């Protein structure tokens, strides 16, 4: 094992240790377009009569988890699902607004499976795996058919065909939508399919239960330790396989567009039990969010990217221009995205649009309080199509903006600024979506699989549903077919009992700290460090500082945290404390990952690695790999396993959207 430390005495402690390379051994040797068919044919099957004897735990009831539960339940497996919300249908997926991509090419505008595949690889700045992304593009069309069959009310054109619109980073219209509530409508479809299985007795849902640990027995994932959030009781659930569909970890930044409860606990606990965590520093900053309005804000609101179809983004040409937007004449406005990127204009990918907004604000041309905003102006389209037509497409987004800001977007342009939104990193999975812990599968935003260093808009819903409806049911069946049901396992097994005791001990330890500071004050401070130093722009010096600050704050957390109440009751401060404790550990790994990746790619922008025009400059010679991190124990440097990325169907190029 080699280390990356430089000098012995005065050098900082080593950041990480080098591990052996990791490879995906599950994608079959076949031409790219035939890999998935080949895998499906080669995968083992479980006969219908045997399925009712096989059990699966699914943690998460968002689009990924609900679609998986519905499909596995329909197939006849015994599924037990968990979520921490009071209802499965309140999973964070419900917040998704703008749409879902699919290579249907209804518009005959040049779309195809290959183009969706290509756009996704390029959009991700050549840091995702070809085989997974190609399969995603192949499966995309079937998702729309499935949703339509469930009655999801996608927008339609006059002729009856489903309507589409464009999202960033593409030049075709492949995004299907249901006004600005696509996630909600898709989730209702998946949820009702899941509820059908609840009625049929194949799926059991435990709402208000939080997974606190993974149970690993004889090297295989065999269950979870959960806490009943109402009674505080610690419970053990065992099964033949475990699926994590627990969403992303953007809330490590405290302020993000994610639901307040979104957290990393399930995947982080699995990481500590042996699952590698891939590319943790790849986070997405979304360009069109309502700007921060005060120190005590705890949540940011997204204005859907779909608004960039018709909205024009601009700032005044002159720094310090404080006139009302309507008083600034056309020739004194800088439509900077249209100027810098004429081919894609306002629809450049999110990482590019976010950095451009930061740049104009840094130059003193930002608008609104603190100069941290740019205008998203729909004046042209309102004039061209009329208010009714615009309201039809974006009405709920206009209402939402007005309610939050108190400003009328029909009268003056919206103000937007980038905010943390999505995490491309997550648990490492192979082509079968199986982690490095056998029997532990990871789907949806919780895995790292398809989006490389930058996710294209409307591709998360596509991935979550592709994983849950179409991929997992095949690959999980293969796993079960290869691992026949073992003799009964129960809570008395030493590994199971130890996991339950450790979970209880951790809660007790949190309660016993007995300090003065609230969980939220620690979380806010942690988020501030991460946003400033591991956010939209990262430097070696800033990341080193962040590492030190995160470690110091974590120590303070474990000595000065104050939680009132008990573990044997509803205790939201205790719930949040457990999540924040895990965010601290994750934050450290994110900084190490960002520090070791001395290149810019997608959402990971290292100031030391940029082109003359200030664009992200990759270093394919040194960094064309997935960084998969192994947990080496408390206080020990993590171990880096590299998965080399090989491109056969696309050529790695410097991205250009000009
Ligand atoms: C405001 C907003 C708008 C978006 N709009 C779009 C869009 O238009 N198009 C698009 O493609 N993407 C969009 N996205 C991204 C997309 O919504 C998410 O990536 C996607 O919904 C994630 O789905 P998921 O099923 O993986 O996880 P989630 O929907 O986040 O579900 C996670 C589930 O896991 C459960 N869970 C988590 N941890 C635990 C635990 N420890 N114990 C028990 N249960 C647990 C939760 O209860 C929940 O049920 C948007 C995101 C945001 C924030």
From TrEMBL:
UniProt keyword Cytoplasm, yes or no: no
Keywords: Flavoprotein, Oxidoreductase
Organism listed in the record: Brevibacterium daeguense
Domain FAD-dependent oxidoreductase 2 FAD-binding, residue spans: 56-461
Keyword Secreted: no
Pfam families: FAD_binding_2, Succ_DH_flav_C
Region (Disordered): 1-21
Entries under SUPFAM superfamilies matching the protein: FAD/NAD(P)-binding domain (SSF51905), Succinate dehydrogenase/fumarate reductase flavoprotein C-terminal domain (SSF46977), Succinate dehydrogenase/fumarate reductase flavoprotein, catalytic domain (SSF56425)
All copies of domain Fumarate reductase/succinate dehydrogenase flavoprotein-like C-terminal, residue ranges: 523-657
Lineage of origin: Bacteria, Bacillati, Actinomycetota, Actinomycetes, Micrococcales
Protein name per UniProt: Fumarate reductase/succinate dehydrogenase flavoprotein subunit
């Amino acid at each position: 094992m080699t280390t990356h430390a430089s000098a012995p005495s005065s050098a900082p402690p080593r950041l990480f240790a080098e591990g052996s390379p990791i490879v995906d051994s599950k994608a079959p040797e076949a031409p790219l377009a035939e890999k998935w068919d080949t895998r499906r044919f080669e995968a083992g099957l479980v006969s219908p009569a045997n399925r009712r004897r096989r059990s699966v735990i699914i943690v998460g009831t968002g689009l990924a988890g609900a679609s998986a539960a519905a499909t596995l339940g329909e197939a006849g497996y015994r599924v037990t699902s968990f979520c921490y919300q009071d209802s499965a249908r309140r999973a964070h997926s419900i917040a998704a607004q703008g749409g879902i991509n699919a290579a249907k090419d209804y518009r005959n505008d040049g779309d195809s499976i290959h183009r969706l595949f290509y756009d996704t690889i390029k959009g991700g700045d050549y840091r995702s795996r070809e085989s997974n992304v190609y399969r995603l593009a192949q499966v995309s069309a079937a998702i729309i058919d499935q949703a339509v069959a469930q009655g999801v009310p996608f927008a339609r054109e006059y002729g009856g065909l489903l309507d589409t619109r464009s999202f960033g980073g593409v030049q075709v219209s492949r995004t299907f939508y249901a006004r600005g509530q696509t996630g909600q409508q898709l989730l209702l479809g998946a949820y009702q399919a899941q509820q059908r299985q609840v009625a049929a007795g194949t799926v059991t849902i435990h709402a208000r239960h939080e997974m606190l640990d993974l149970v690993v027995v004889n090297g295989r994932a065999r269950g979870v330790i959960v806490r009943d959030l109402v009674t505080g009781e610690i419970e053990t659930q065992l099964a033949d396989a475990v699926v994590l569909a627990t969403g992303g970890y953007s809330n490590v930044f405290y302020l993000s567009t994610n639901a307040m409860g979104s957290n990393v606990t399930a995947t982080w606990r699995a990481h500590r039990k042996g699952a590698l965590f891939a590319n943790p520093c790849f986070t997405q900053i979304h360009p069109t969010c309502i700007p921060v309005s005060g120190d005590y804000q705890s949540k940011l609101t997204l204005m859907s990217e779909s608004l960039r179809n018709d909205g024009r983004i601009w700032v005044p040409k002159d720094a310090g221009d404080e006139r009302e937007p309507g008083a600034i004449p056309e020739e004194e406005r800088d439509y900077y995205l249209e100027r810098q990127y004429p081919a894609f204009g306002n629809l450049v990918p999110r990482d590019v649009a976010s950095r451009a907004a930061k740049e104009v604000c840094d130059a003193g041309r930002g608008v609104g309080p603190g100069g941290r905003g740019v205008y998203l102006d729909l004046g042209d389209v309102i004039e061209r199509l009329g208010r009714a037509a615009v309201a039809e497409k974006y009405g709920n987004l206009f209402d939402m903006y007005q309610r939050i800001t108190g400003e009328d977007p029909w009268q003056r342009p919206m103000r937007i600024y980038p905010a943390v939104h999505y995490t491309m990193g997550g648990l490492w999975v192979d082509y079968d979506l199986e982690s490095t812990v056998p029997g532990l599968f990871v789907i949806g935003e919780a895995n790292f699989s398809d989006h490389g260093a930058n996710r294209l808009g409307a591709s998360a819903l596509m991935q979550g549903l592709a994983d849950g409806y179409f991929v997992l049911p095949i690959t999980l069946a293969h796993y079960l077919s290869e691992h026949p049901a073992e003799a009964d396992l129960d809570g008395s097994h030493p590994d199971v009992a130890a996991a339950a005791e450790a979970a209880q001990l951790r809660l007790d330890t949190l309660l016993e700290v007995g300090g003065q500071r609230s969980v939220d004050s620690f979380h806010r401070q942690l988020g501030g460090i991460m946003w400033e130093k591991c956010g939209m722009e990262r430097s070696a010096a800033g990341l080193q500082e962040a590492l030190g600050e995160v470690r110091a704050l974590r120590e303070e957390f474990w000595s000065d945290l104050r939680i009132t109440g008990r573990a044997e009751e509803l205790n939201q401060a205790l719930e949040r404390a457990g999540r924040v404790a895990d965010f601290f550990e994750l934050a450290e790994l994110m900084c190490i990952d960002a520090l070791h990746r001395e290149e810019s790619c997608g959402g990971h922008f290292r100031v030391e690695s940029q082109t003359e025009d200030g664009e992200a400059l990759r270093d394919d010679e040194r960094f064309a790999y997935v960084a998969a991190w192994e947990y080496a124990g408390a206080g020990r440097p993590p171990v880096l396993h590299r998965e080399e990325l090989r491109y056969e169907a696309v050529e790695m190029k410097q991205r250009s959207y000009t």
